[in-house]
Design a protein that fits this description.
The chain has helices spanning 6-37, 45-79, 89-92, 127-152, and strands at 100-107, 110-116, 121-123. The chain is mainly alpha-helical. The chain is elongated. The N and C termini lie far apart (79 Å).
């Protein structure tokens, strides 16, 4: 993957707004949970809180993914531009010279790996494992919360089967 890829540029540019969104997201979650816990809330607060929590979990997954993808894009950029950039610094710190041949990057799943002389790869950082797990966990939580909100609002209640329709009248065929 080269440093001029449009995907890398996009994630590199989205990294900074995502960093700013994290504290705002955290404050919004705390305020919403406090408003649900304090007296004076609306009578339909449970489904509303579940739907809102599903949206916030999905937003958290997106922000976490963008942060990780921005980190991958930054590592790709640093390892492919300038003097003393290849192999990547993340890889050079962990492996002796001669063992390391290069690096590979992936946006799905988030990964920046060091390629060794024997053809195997090693992760440059354990942070990518945690980022991928966090994105998957928040995405799964969003789905579970959305299903729970649907069940709490009564959309999934078992309904009585519809009455059978009467057969259309038969017209007499004249011979």
């Amino acid at each position: 993957m080269d440093d001029d890829s449009p995907l890398g540029l996009l994630f590199g540019l989205l990294l900074y707004p995502a960093l700013l969104a994290v504290p705002v997201w955290g404050i919004a979650v705390i305020v919403k949970l406090l408003s649900a816990a304090l007296p004076g809330r609306r009578p339909d607060w449970r489904p509303d809180l579940l739907r809102w929590s599903a949206r916030m979990a999905l937003l958290g997954a997106v922000v976490l993914y963008v942060l990780g993808a921005g980190g991958v894009a930054l590592s790709v950029h640093e390892s492919s531009s300038g003097a003393d950039s290849t192999p990547a610094h993340e890889c050079r710190d962990d492996f002796p010279p001669g063992v390391l041949v290069g690096q590979t990057a992936s946006y799905v799943p988030l990964r920046f790996d060091c390629v060794l002389a024997d053809g195997s790869t090693r992760s440059s950082s354990p942070a990518y494992l945690w980022l991928n797990a966090g994105v998957a966990g928040l995405g799964l939580a969003a789905v579970v919360l959305k299903v729970s909100a649907s069940m709490a609002s009564g959309r999934w209640e078992e309904r009585e089967p519809a009455a059978p329709r009467p057969a259309p009248p038969r017209s007499a065929v004249s011979a």
